[in-house]
UniProtKB/TrEMBL annotation:
Protein name: Rab-GAP/TBC domain protein
GO biological processes: negative regulation of septation initiation signaling
Alphabetical list of InterPro entries matching this protein: Rab-GAP-TBC_dom (IPR000195), Rab-GAP_TBC_sf (IPR035969)
Superkingdom per UniProt: Eukaryota
Compositional bias annotation for Low complexity: 99-111, 278-289, 306-319
GO cellular component: mitotic spindle pole body
Gene Ontology molecular function: any one: GTPase activator activity
């Protein structure tokens, strides 16, 4: 709003004066003649008078119109949908996945809001629905308190847990990733992000010499497939092409292929060894009592999903073999190389993601990806039945339009800095939430899909990612889907 000399000269104290001085005291006033005020000046004075009266009323009531927490949220440019989510910290298998980013305002503050909504405050029907869902469940909910909540994310990662409280430090780090985000530049670069990812993915410490040893082994059995994919990795993203070379991507994928190949051979040898020991008349004469080799899923993931017993009880001969390389892994590896400060760090994080979180994505038939695509259709039918029926009538199943988004955790959709922010959220509370993030993108673009005569053209390329909006809508979707569907989402990539 532009200012005029008359506006700058007006002060709240002068406006609050009940009446003008009597005529007999005019000699005390300035004798300089002033031009008569314009209607614009009167409008400005009325606005200032209104603001002063409103402020005085709030001061007399002993409260502020905006609580300090909401003021901080406004400075962080929080999304309107974030206030719609509720805090849920006890629901398994994901204790804090549905946690709210901004808590509900106290009832006293809500009663003070008498201003009618302007047209600029209007939100889309989808956003209104998310707000309504959250408002129905947020009564009496406050922001959770964590043992390391007084520390910044950088302090938690750098200094580690206090008094050996690893669980408390991890929960505090997860919350801060969602609530505050990882500080980064406009291009997504951050000196902290890769270490946050390594911690959240539970990636083991790996000496650089181990990575170099894999590089010096030369071409892996999947080298030809790798070279056929690397030259077309994020070719339209100038940020990635400027920072990451194709040679670096080839080395990383080749090293991961070697490590996965070795794990596959160990599985085969272990399966054959156990089978030979269990045969009648074996030369050893002993039953197989050795524990099976460790599988890809992490202990934390198994405890959340309840899949540990079934995995450990499966026979080695019937267990699926680990994959080595599938098309699309190049795009999945690209954000790691972009965010990491060395290829060794990128390798450790990328390998942990493949073997612990999404091992079924890289097996021969990519069974995990196809299960995820089926879940996209199921979740969409629950969240937005009209949109799901519209796509089904057009013959558009998720297998047709969402395959790259499921396989690459939405890394195939630019811009890359938004991909990094979305991955912060996925790694904090589980990459399986990517299924819900895809549904969130569909609901965001639902109007365009419903109005298009050919939705297939719309779905060929999703709109640019908006990580904050997608996270907010995803948190709202979590509370809408049934427990059995959510349980299938958690284990679909194992």
């Amino acid at each position: 709003m532009t200012t005029s000399p008359s506006r700058e000269g007006a002060s709240p104290a002068a406006i609050a004066t009940p009446s003008l001085p009597p005529p007999q005291h005019n000699s005390l006033l300035h004798t300089d003649l002033q031009p008569p005020p314009s209607p614009r000046t009167h409008r400005a004075l009325r606005r200032l008078q209104s603001a002063h009266t409103l402020g005085a009323k709030a001061a007399s009531q002993g409260g502020s119109l905006i609580s300090p927490h909401y003021r901080d949220a406004l400075h962080r440019n929080a999304s309107p949908v974030r206030a719609a989510a509720t805090t849920t910290t006890t629901t398994p298998p994901l204790p804090a996945a549905a946690a709210a980013v901004v808590p509900a305002a106290p009832a006293q503050q809500q009663q003070q809001r008498h201003r009618g909504r302007a047209n600029s405050d209007a939100i889309s029907p989808m956003m209104h629905q998310m707000n309504a869902v959250g408002a129905a469940r947020r009564s009496g909910v406050s922001k959770p308190v964590f043992s390391h909540g007084h520390l910044s994310l950088q302090q938690i990662i750098r200094e580690g847990p206090n008094d050996g409280d690893f669980i408390g430090a991890l929960e505090s780090a997860r919350w801060k990733v969602v609530d505050e985000g990882v500080k980064s530049a406009e291009d997504g670069m951050s000196t902290l992000r890769i270490y946050v990812w390594l911690v959240l993915l539970d990636a083991p410490i790996m000496p650089t010499d181990d990575y170099l040893a894999l590089i010096h082994r030369g071409a892996s059995p999947a080298y030809a497939k790798i070279r056929n994919d690397t030259f077309r990795t994020l070719t339209t993203d100038p940020l990635f092409r400027r920072r990451v070379s194709e040679a670096s991507l080839i080395r990383l994928l080749n090293a991961v292929a070697w490590r996965l190949h070795d794990a596959r051979e160990e599985e085969r040898v272990a399966g054959g060894f156990d089978t030979a020991l269990s045969r009648p008349g074996s030369r050893s004469g002993r039953s197989s009592s050795r524990p099976p080799p460790q599988r890809g899923a992490s202990t934390t993931r198994e405890s959340l999903t309840g899949a540990a017993g079934s995995a450990s009880g499966a026979s080695r001969s019937g267990a699926p073999e680990p994959g080595t390389y599938v098309q699309g892994m190049n795009v999945l590896a690209a954000p790691f190389l972009y965010a990491a400060r060395s290829e060794g760090e990128a390798f450790a994080a990328f390998h942990a993601l493949l073997t612990r979180e999404v091992p079924a994505y890289i097996r021969g038939a990519m069974t995990g990806v196809h299960r995820g695509l089926a879940l996209v259709d199921r979740v969409l039918a629950v969240v937005d039945p009209r949109l799901a029926m519209h796509l089904a009538a057009k013959g558009l199943a998720a297998e047709i339009y969402a395959f790259p988004s499921v396989l690459t955790l939405c890394a195939c959709t630019p811009p890359l800095p938004e991909v990094l922010k979305l991955w912060d959220f996925l790694f904090a509370y589980g990459p399986h939430l990517n299924i819900l993030c895809i549904v969130a993108q569909l609901t965001i673009m639902r109007a365009q899909i419903l109005q298009s005569p050919s939705p297939n053209k719309v779905l060929r390329s999703f709109p640019p990612l908006n990580a904050d909006l997608i996270k907010s809508v995803t948190i709202g979707i979590i509370k809408q889907i049934p427990d059995d569907v959510y349980a299938d989402i958690v284990v679909h990539a194992q």
